[in-house]
């Protein structure tokens, strides 16, 4: 079925020899157009034909190119609607109930894909989802090395029936914007559970970047193994051996061995470089958006150091191809997960969080929602998605919509100073000042000397009010400290936040090589 679906999509993306005017399914009734920017409308028709596009008081024309494509750019529009978008050529397309407001892409892996009906208080969220000016569209999961121009999907209005299976993080983010701004909100959900960051990036970009040569060489080997038939030959040998063993087991009255399955190495999967870029993102590139919210990283945790470069590259690749400037890009830092450990230890998840945080200093208009306080040890999919969506919405409301006094940025490490037997750590973005949860003593700090052996540390917050921006850290086991870490674990016990309720961003003051420093491929 998946291959048939892919073939149907591919067929739909190729202009017919003689066909009526068509557009990709990102355009349709109930859609939202991004306000105050020129929005591109595009599609296919017979070469040389004149296409007329109309909405409100605008009328645009285009001549279809030799390759059967056409496009126009609508003049910027103010918030409002409903409008009718009409497209005339050979035949006519008419889209009803079109609104103008704010459009955001909701992307990443399973924690962004996670539906409302599997989260906390799902019944309450669904029964109250009566927001006719919040609109959804979901892009199916298609992995391919051929860029697709269309997908199976359509816009729908927010109702209890349409909301239950939609991205919970996306919905709570969009609902907060809608309630705060009083404008229509369009949400494009293209998340794919388990996806790796490299699958979201244009293959040409990855192939040309020497930093990812080992990763790409590994995939080229997998691809050659499959395309040459060697993978199939190996499978046929396994199958023949199984048939013999199964027959012998049956004759002896024993349990038959499990039948082997053909392994194509992930050729259509969500880890192969550019697979999701081609099959999921590409059909929407060019649609007018305000920005992107992103929740991904779990699948790249074993290569966290590589993510320091890979993730910013992906963001820049999207910005380059959408051609809409440095649009806002906000992500969720990985939550706490896995068993708590009694003693300080290295952690690939901590290193991935660090890589995410580093991205804010590498690209403009980026931000990180820290959720180190709302994860679940035994579930990689925390069910509290409401607070995740709200923390992302804080970034957008403060940075993009003029709510200057709104707390949005988690406290973050700024500098350190060694003073005899302790280290004084200074933080930025403390808001109303640093605070703790549950107990007065700050928890989650470790400290080390030149031997690089970390010990649990004692800590105390210094200062008053907004000047509560420093923490003194020490341990009786470390006479001459050189480094401090906070929440540096898969699932740390930590409790520092600011008085606005935003948790302190996990950090370390050292740059000692981590457990993923040398990992360059899967």
Quick summary:
The protein is an alpha/beta fold and 522 residues long. It has helices spanning 2-12, 110-113, 122-127, 160-163, 168-181, 203-207, 213-227, 230-251, 275-281, 304-322, 348-359, 386-400, and strands at residues 32-34, 39-44, 50-55, 58-63, 69-74, 80-89, 91-108, 131-138, 156-158, 185-189, 291-295, 329-332, 366-369, 412-419, 422-428, 434-436, 445-448, 454-456, 458-462, 470-474, 483-486, 496-498, 507-508. Strands 1, 3, 4, 6, 7, 8, 9, 10, 11, 12 and 13 form an eleven-stranded mixed beta sheet that branches. Strands 14-15-20-19 form a four-stranded antiparallel beta sheet, with no helix packed on it.
List the helices and strands and how they pair.
Elements lengths: L1 H11 L19 E3 L4 E6 L5 E6 L2 E6 L5 E6 L5 E10 L1 E18 L1 H4 L8 H6 L3 E8 L17 E3 L1 H4 L4 H14 L3 E5 L13 H5 L5 H15 L2 H22 L23 H7 L9 E5 L8 H19 L6 E4 L15 H12 L6 E4 L16 H15 L11 E8 L2 E7 L5 E3 L8 E4 L5 E3 L1 E5 L7 E5 L8 E4 L9 E3 L8 E2 L14
Parallel strand pairs: 1-7, 7-10, 7-11, 8-10, 11-12, 12-13
Antiparallel strand pairs: 2-5, 3-4, 3-6, 6-7, 8-9, 14-15, 15-20, 16-22, 17-18, 17-21, 19-20, 21-23
Description:
- There is one protein chain.
- The protein has 522 residues and is of the alpha/beta class.
- The chain has four domains: 96 residues, Immunoglobulin-like (Sandwich), CATH 2.60.40.10; 243 residues, 3-Layer(aba) Sandwich (Rossmann fold); 55 residues; 97 residues, no CATH class.
- Helix content is 26%, strand content 25%.
- It contains twelve helices and 23 strands.
- The strands form five sheets. Strands 1, 3, 4, 6, 7, 8, 9, 10, 11, 12 and 13 form an eleven-stranded mixed sheet that branches. It has a four-stranded antiparallel sheet with strand order 14-15-20-19, with no helix packed on it. A four-stranded antiparallel sheet has the order 18-17-21-23, with no helix packed on it.
- A hairpin with a 1-residue loop joins β6 and β7.
- The N terminus is likely disordered.
């Amino acid at each position: 079925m998946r291959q048939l679906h892919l073939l149907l999509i591919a067929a739909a993306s190729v202009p017919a020899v003689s066909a009526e005017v068509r557009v990709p399914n990102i355009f349709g009734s109930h859609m939202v157009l991004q306000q105050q920017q020129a929005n591109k409308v595009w599609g296919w028709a017979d070469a040389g034909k004149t296409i007329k596009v109309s909405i409100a008081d605008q009328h645009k024309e285009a001549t279809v190119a030799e390759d059967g494509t056409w496009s126009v750019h609508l003049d910027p529009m103010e918030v409002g609607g409903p409008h009718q978008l009409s497209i005339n050529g050979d035949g006519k397309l008419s889209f009803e109930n079109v609104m103008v407001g704010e459009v955001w892409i909701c992307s990443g892996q399973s924690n962004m894909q996670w539906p409302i009906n599997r989260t906390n208080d799902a019944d309450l969220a669904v029964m109250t989802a009566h927001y006719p000016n919040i609109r959804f569209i979901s892009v199916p999961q298609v992995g391919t090395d051929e860029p697709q121009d269309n997908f199976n999907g359509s816009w729908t209005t927010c109702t209890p029936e349409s909301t239950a299976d939609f991205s919970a993080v996306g919905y709570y983010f969009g609902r907060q914007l809608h309630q705060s701004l009083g404008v229509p909100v369009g949400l494009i959900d293209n998340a794919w559970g388990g996806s790796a960051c490299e699958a979201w990036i244009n293959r040409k970009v990855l192939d040309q970047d020497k930093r990812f040569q080992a990763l790409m060489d590994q995939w080229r080997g997998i691809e050659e193994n499959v395309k040459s038939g060697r993978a199939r030959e190996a499978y046929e040998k396994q199958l023949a051996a199984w048939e013999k063993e199964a027959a012998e087991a049956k004759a002896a009255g024993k349990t038959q061995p499990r039948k082997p399955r053909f392994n194509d190495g992930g050729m259509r999967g969500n880890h192969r470089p550019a697979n999701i870029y081609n099959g999921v993102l590409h059909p929407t590139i060019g649609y007018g958006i305000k920005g992107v919210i992103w929740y991904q990283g779990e699948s790249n945790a074993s290569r966290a150091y590589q993510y320091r470069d890979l993730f910013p590259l992906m963001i820049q690749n999207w910005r380059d191809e959408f051609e809409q400037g440095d649009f806002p890009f906000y992500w969720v830092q990985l939550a706490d997960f896995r068993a708590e450990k009694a003693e300080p230890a290295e952690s690939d998840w901590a290193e991935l969080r660090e890589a995410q945080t580093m991205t804010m200093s590498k690209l403009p208009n980026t931000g990180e929602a820290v959720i180190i306080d709302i994860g679940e040890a035994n579930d990689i999919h925390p069910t509290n998605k409401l607070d995740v969506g709200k923390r992302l919405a804080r970034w957008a409301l403060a940075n993009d919509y003029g709510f200057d006094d709104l707390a949005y940025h988690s406290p973050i490490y700024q500098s350190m100073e060694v003073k005899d037997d302790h280290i004084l750590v200074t933080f930025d973005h403390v808001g109303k000042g640093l605070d703790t949860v549950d107990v007065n003593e700050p928890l989650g700090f470790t400290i080390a000397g030149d031997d690089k052996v970390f010990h649990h540390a004692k800590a105390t917050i210094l200062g008053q009010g907004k000047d509560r921006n420093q923490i003194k850290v020490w341990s009786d086991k470390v006479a001459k400290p050189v480094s401090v870490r906070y929440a540096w674990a898969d699932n740390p016990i930590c409790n520092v936040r600011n008085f606005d309720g935003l948790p302190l961003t996990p950090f370390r003051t050292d740059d000692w090589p981590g457990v993923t420093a040398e990992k360059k491929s899967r």
